[in-house]
Amino acid sequence: MNKVIKIVVTGPRGKMGREAIRMITNTKQFQLVGVIDRNNNGKGLSEIVSMEDQGQDCSVFTDVNQCLRETKPDCLLELSVADAAYEHALAAIQFGVRPVIGTTGLSQEQLADIEREANENKIGCIVAPNFAIGAVLMMKFAEMAAKHFPDVEIIEMHHDEKVDAPSGTALKTAEMIQRQRQEKQQGHPKEIEKLSGVRGGDFDGMKIHSIRLPGLVAHQQVLFGSVGETLTIRHDSYNRTSFMTGVKKAVETVMHVDSYIYGLENILE
Ligand SMILES: NC(=O)C1=CN([C@@H]2O[C@H](COP(=O)(O)OP(=O)(O)OC[C@H]3O[C@@H](n4cnc5c(N)ncnc54)[C@H](O)[C@@H]3O)[C@@H](O)[C@H]2O)C=CC1
Ligand SMILES: O=C(O)C1=N[C@H](C(=O)O)C[C@H](O)C1
């Protein structure tokens, strides 16, 4: 029989945190042993979130070190904000706890530190800018298309509570396209922005456009253009349950690896 995986969730009052707690509670081989919240140290989880459809209560911590010392988890599921995620991930690795990081907005330097610490300490760590299987396929398809279509623009659309722009998914998509695409500065060489920022952010000559509106969840279009044709690859997450298959897969997988992995595509068969 498989061993039960003991999990600490960060950001338990957040949109992803609440969904993840529901998934963990409904998964036999997972056990929620603690949560890390910005406030509410010493309270019970049931005092800070509605536990209607959830069976497992646990303690709330604000200090990551105290939480890891007292709860002794196998995995830290990070779903809060970038700077806290960095601190939580490094602390987890020091305690021998495997981080699964869904939080986006971490800098390249922060990710490089986490990668180095995980690899030096031989602790499995998975960073997944998007846990939705369809989003991972969208990125892979975009990477394939980029070999044939060097002209590309990325439009990502999210709810207006999102703090980081561009999204982690858009950045990861651009990185994957960059691996295949011939170097190219797109658009007219003498292009003039008459309104600042109107052509979007520049990633190695590719443009990324970020849209924020109430009503949206998480959506992205990758548009390729060539002579007389365009190709559009689009993914939509309509709710946060869409991310849970990937979260589950990442938590199960991180228990069997001893190094840093960036991107869910690297663990899907
Ligand atoms: N990888 C993926 O598939 C997905 C990633 N995300 C990312 O996950 C993160 C969370 O997203 P949401 O749940 O939508 O945001 P949210 O704003 O609803 O929740 C974030 C929570 O983190 C908490 N928090 C802030 N500082 C903290 C700290 N120091 N310690 C513990 N908790 C702290 C906040 O109080 C809040 O409850 C974001 O970075 C988002 O981009 C979101 C959806 C999918
Ligand atoms: O904040 C969100 O909502 C999401 N964040 C991730 C990102 O930045 O790519 C994943 C998904 O797009 C939802």
UniProtKB/TrEMBL annotation:
Domain Dihydrodipicolinate reductase C-terminal: where? 134-268
* InterPro entries the record matches: DapB_C, DapB_N, DapB_N_CS, DHDPR_bac, NAD(P)-bd_dom_sf
| Residue positions of the active site | 158 (proton donor/acceptor), 162 (proton donor)
User: Which pathway does the protein contribute to?
Assistant: Amino-acid biosynthesis; L-lysine biosynthesis via DAP pathway; (S)-tetrahydrodipicolinate from L-aspartate: step 4/4
Domain Dihydrodipicolinate reductase N-terminal, by residue range, is: 5-131
* Residues annotated as binding NAD(+): 11-16, 37, 102-104, 128-131
Record: residues binding (S)-2,3,4,5-tetrahydrodipicolinate: 159, 168-169
Name the keywords, alphabetized. Answer: Amino-acid biosynthesis, Cytoplasm, Diaminopimelate biosynthesis, Lysine biosynthesis, NAD, NADP, Oxidoreductase
Q: Where in the cell is it found?
A: Cytoplasm
Q: Reaction catalysed by this chain?
A: (S)-2,3,4,5-tetrahydrodipicolinate + NADP(+) + H2O = (2S,4S)-4-hydroxy-2,3,4,5-tetrahydrodipicolinate + NADPH + H(+); (S)-2,3,4,5-tetrahydrodipicolinate + NAD(+) + H2O = (2S,4S)-4-hydroxy-2,3,4,5-tetrahydrodipicolinate + NADH + H(+)
Any one GO MF term held by the record is: 4-hydroxy-tetrahydrodipicolinate reductase
Per UniProt, NADP(+) binds at 38
| Family of the protein in this entry | Belongs to the DapB family.
- Quaternary organization: Homotetramer.
Q: What exactly does this protein do? A: Catalyzes the conversion of 4-hydroxy-tetrahydrodipicolinate (HTPA) to tetrahydrodipicolinate.
Q: Which PANTHER family match?
A: 4-HYDROXY-TETRAHYDRODIPICOLINATE REDUCTASE 1, CHLOROPLASTIC-RELATED, DIHYDRODIPICOLINATE REDUCTASE
The protein's name is 4-hydroxy-tetrahydrodipicolinate reductase
**Record organism:** Fervidibacillus halotolerans
